[in-house]
Specification:
about 20% strand; 10 helices; binds S-adenosylmethionine; 2 domains; 60s Ribosomal Protein L30, Chain: A; elongated; 12 strands; single chain; Alpha/beta knot; alpha/beta
Length: about 290
């Protein structure tokens, strides 16, 4: 146990405990995080993999429990993460492969898992300036789409993602997996449609909606001189009228083939890169 700076193995927070039983109550609590009800009850969610756990700790997220495979003992990175978690007051569990597999329900699980406190930004704290971009998602349902949008928003330097209405849980395991760690880097806000529309009234920038019947080609707008909220519609229904009619512009991405629409995450990626290209600020390099 020297890798943990001599921390005693008593199982209390800030200490290390060895677990081999699937019936261990902490393991049961962690497994229950597969369901939103228990994620909300515990105000917690699960992130898998050493990289994600390191990203989260580096970005100041609060770790409640670190779980790592016995087989990872001796890996200096894992031991460092364990020591950081102990120092942060987390419970650290050294577990058997069998326990790890049961938590992740995967045959080849990651050797490190972290249980983190959920964190959301309040809508009232969302203030855009300069050429900031936020993505607003209306009732997004698919965890893979949400994770991909968060990852893409992170990649282009967007400032956050706003979840409008009844959206899939950003802290669902599939969403967190699809973000590849960007969940820890991109502020997330939840808002009802009414709250979003009230906030939108005060917002001085451009609200650019995307719509299959949009009147404006997405390449014809210059996004340079003000902040932008890019509003994307639900996977099956698109943007509802009350949201669509409050956009400053409704943009369309032209399509040539038989597909009636683009996948939501793909459309968001195209739009985000266009906003950035048009504002000439991606990496500070003017578009060619
Ligand atoms: N059946 C839905 C509809 O009628 O809008 C399709 C929704 S589409 C899968 C999900 C979202 O992606 C849309 O609401 C819109 O925000 C965006 N989107 C997809 N393809 C688009 C396109 N060609 N032009 C503009 N937005 C698009």
């Amino acid at each position: 146990m020297s890798g943990y700076a001599g921390v005693p193995r008593t199982g209390a927070p800030g200490q290390v405990k060895e677990v081999t039983s699937l019936a261990n109550p902490v393991i049961k609590d962690i497994k229950s995080l597969a369901l939103k009800k228990f994620r909300d009850q515990q105000n917690a969610f699960l992130a898998e993999g050493l990289k994600l756990v390191i990203d989260a700790l580096d970005l100041g997220w609060t770790i409640k429990t670190l779980v790592f495979a016995k087989s990872a003992l001796g890996n200096p990175l894992v031991e460092k993460v364990a020591a950081r978690s102990v120092a942060a007051g987390a419970l650290v569990l050294e577990v058997s492969e069998k326990v790890l597999t049961s938590v992740t329900r995967k045959d080849n699980p990651q050797t490190v898992l972290g249980v983190f406190e959920q964190k959301l930004t309040a809508l009232r704290d969302v203030r855009l300036s300069g050429s900031d971009v936020w993505v607003a998602l209306d009732r997004i349902r698919d965890p893979g789409n949400l994770g991909t949008v968060i990852r893409t928003a992170d990649a282009v330097g967007a400032k956050g993602v706003l979840l409008v209405g009844d959206c899939v849980d950003p802290f669902a395991l599939e969403t967190v997996r699809a973000t590849m760690g960007s969940i820890f880097a991109v502020p997330l806000v939840k808002a009802t449609p009414d709250a979003f529309l009230a906030w939108r009234k005060e917002f001085k920038g451009l609200v650019a909606g995307t719509h299959l019947k949009g009147a404006v080609d997405y390449r014809s707008v210059r996004f340079a001189d003000k902040p932008v909220v890019l509003l994307m519609g639900n996977e099956s229904q698109g943007l509802p009228e009350p949201l669509a009619e409050r956009c400053d512009v409704l943009l369309r991405i032209p399509q040539a083939g038989r597909a009636d629409s683009l996948n939501l995450a793909v459309a968001t990626g195209i739009m985000l890169y266009e906003v950035r290209r048009s504002a000439l600020i991606l990496d500070g390099v003017p578009a060619a």
